[in-house]
Amino acid sequence: MSLLAVSNLTKNYRRTGKPVAAVDDVSFTIEPGETLALAGPSGSGKSTIARLVLRLIEPDAGRIEFEGSDFLVLRGAALRARRARLQMVFQDPLAAFNPRATVARVLDDPLRIHGIASRAERPRRIAALLERVGLAADLAPRAIHEISGGQRQRVAIARAIATKPSLIVLDEAVSALDVSVRGQILDLLLDLQRQDKIAYLFISHDLGVVRAVAHRVILLNAGRIAESGDARAVIDAPRSAIGRALVAAAPKLNRAKT
Ligand SMILES: Nc1ncnc2c1ncn2[C@@H]1O[C@H](COP(=O)(O)OP(=O)(O)O)[C@@H](O)[C@H]1O
Ligand SMILES: [Mg+2]
After folding, report:
1. Is the pTM here over 0.90, yes or no?
2. Would the CB of 222 count as within 6 Å of ligand 1?
3. Ligand 2 mean position to 43 CA, how many Å?
4. Among 60, 71, 141, 161, which residue's Cβ finds the most Cβ atoms within 10 Å?
């Protein structure tokens, strides 16, 4: 059984009265511990798929099965419980969190809301989460806006793993970082995946990053799947027109890299 099975997902938006198919009949699966990348040009529907999978928005048609049950019919307590298993990391943690909140507060929230640890136990759990993402414990009292972009993204990852998810949706999660910090965050994601068998829905417009971290890739164009398959095979020899255009436009695809 797949961890996530999306079938015939469709979402239309209206622009000046005219319907735009942001996501048009998209189907895919993600297996436990697997990284599936969604790549494609700006406006191809990547973030809309992320938001549909997270149930931040509702589809016009299609099914989403997560951990063996119909995710679209869950309500109330059942939805909250299942949400703990499906976490997210976005491009800009300054927008995702209250910038004046402390690091400790950002990590305390999921532990409290999902009833994972008692008030007395939570400081220790927060320290352990910081350690797991390579941050010093003395960062806990600092405000989100005071720490660096790389540190903030580590906090976002710590928050995501706090509820022991089976799947994390990462929407351009490393795109705003400098190259060296980006490499460190990607290494952290790979370590966490190896340790906890977490699956990633990894959204990136950067084919070099996708090639380095993803097992499989789906190339989207105008809301539809243009091509999909083994990440390296697709990126090294794209068959679709959009795939060839994306590869040609990628600045420095390091094909020698493993
Ligand atoms: N809330 C919205 N209202 C209207 N149109 C939207 C909305 N969100 C996305 N779209 C449109 O849907 C399409 C896909 O957008 P998006 O999923 O953000 O693409 P990507 O993340 O690949 O850049 C685009 O044409 C975009 O303009
Ligand atoms: Mg997007």
Report:
1. yes
2. no
3. 7
4. 71
Average of per-residue pLDDT across 28-35: 98
Angle between helix axes 122-132 and 103-113 (nearest 10 degrees) is 120
CA of 201 to the centre of ligand 2 (A): 13
Quick one: average pLDDT of 28-41?
98
Q: Which ligand is nearest to the CA of 19?
A: 1
Cβ of residue 22 lying under 6 Å from some atom of ligand 1: yes
Instruction: Print burial letters for 9-22: b (CB count within 10 Å at least 16), e (below 16).
Output: bbbbeeeeeeeebb
User: Distance, CA 98 to ligand 2 centroid (Å)?
Assistant: 21
Residue of 47, 91, 217 best suited for mutating to test ligand 1, as the one with most atoms within 8 Å of CB: 47
Domain residue ranges in the chain = 1-85+167-258, 94-164
Q: What is the pLDDT of residues 148-177, one digit of tens each?
A: 999 999 999 999 999 999 999 999 999 999
Query: CATH for 1-85+167-258?
Result: 3.40.50.300
